Amino acid sequence: MRKLISLAALAAGLWLVYMGHERQESFAGRTDSSLAKLGDRLDGDGPMPKHVKFYAAGFILIAAGALGLGLVRK
What we know:
This protein is mostly helical.
C-alpha cells in the first residue's frame, strides 16, 4: 500500500511540474510573471506566479514519492 501511495505521489508530482512548465510558457504565465515583477517594483511584495506554486508542489511530491519508493536513502 505504501508503494502504491508513493508511486501516486511521484506521478502527481511529475504532472504538476509538467503543468507548471506549460503554464510558464503560455501567454497567461508570461502575463502573470510580468505582473508579479511589476508588483515587486511598485511595493516590494509582488504576488508569486501560479507556475512557481506548481513547481514547488510538484517537487515536494516527487521528493516524498522517491523517499517512499526507496529511490533516495534517508
